[in-house]
Amino acid sequence: MYVPPSFRVDDPLKLSAFIDANSFGTLVSCHAGSPRATHLPMRQVTHDGICKRIVGHFARANPQWQDFEAGGEVLAIFTGPHAYISPAWYVQTPAVPTWNYAAVHVYGTPRVIDDHDRIVGMLEEMIRHYEGASKRPWDGVLPDEYRDRLIRGIVAFEIEVTRIEGKYKLGQNRSEVDIEGVHRALVDSGDPQSHALAALMRAEGMVIDPDRPG
After folding, report:
1. What angle, rounded to 10 degrees, do the helices at 192-203 and 176-188 form?
2. Which of 78, 91, 186, 194 is 20 to 30 A from residue 206's alpha carbon, by CA?
3. For residue 90, is it within any domain?
4. Helices 116-131 & 144-151, crossing angle to 10 degrees?
5. Distance CA 59, CA 200 (A)
6. CA-to-CA distance for 148 and 45, rounded, in angstroms?
7. Total domain count, the chain
């Protein structure tokens, strides 16, 4: 991923938090010299809060898991809020439109997981995570025979992380007055993605949060 220095994010704890908050990603592998991708939820396994492995599963009918047999790296892409940025929001001119966004790329060596008990544990953790925000969470309890039949229809995997790249393109290369103009326009937008991008700008300390005490 092309990452200019002003947009680069290296803090491993921040990158792990981003992956956790944006865990529906895209897994890219190479098949016969061509890229192949699947969109799926992926969970991270951390040590001291730092992402060390990525786990997930394919439908067994999806042939992408067979790419793992060739070895080499795969790429897991996690994307956050993004929005169009109009030059009308800037004070300094001339200027052109752009698109601001946040993304994390995780590279690593994949392998298929065959251990039944470990697969069950992975699925239970994923269910707890995604049900956690629900007012009426599903407990995940299924008859063993039914659960195991469904497990036979998937291929679980883990990716041993070799490197992580983080990019927050939030207009850090613009002047303070232009940054404030962009933030104001994003807040005034009716687009939830724009609101989330504005919140990320505040979290990164680019603008003052008007609701913050003091």
Report:
1. 140
2. 78
3. yes
4. 100
5. 34
6. 23
7. 1
Is 210 part of any domain?
no
* Residue pLDDT, tens place only, 108-130: 999 999 999 999 999 999 999 99
Q: Which helix (H) or strand (E) holds 40?
A: strand 34-41
Q: Given the structure tokens 């939030």, which residue do they identify?
A: 170
What CATH code is carried by the domain that includes residue 10?
2.30.110.10
User: What separation in angstroms does the CA of 196 have from each of 66, 186, 187, 192?
Assistant: 37, 9, 9, 6
Residue 141 CA to residue 147 CA, distance in Å, equals 9
Helix (H) or strand (E) holding 113: strand 98-113
Task: Tell me how far apart the alpha carbons of residues 87 and 106 are, in angstroms, rounded to a whole number.
Answer: 32
Determine the pLDDT at residue 209.
66
159: in domain: yes
∠ Cα 181 15 26 (to 5°) = 95
CA separation for the pair 35, 19 (Å, rounded): 22
Residue 212 lies in a domain: no
Rounded-to-10 torsion of CA 149, 154, 160, 165? -140
pTM score, two decimals?
A: 0.94
Domain membership of residue 59 as a residue range? 5-203
CB neighbour class for 195 (10 Å; exposed up to 12, middle 13-18, buried from 19): middle
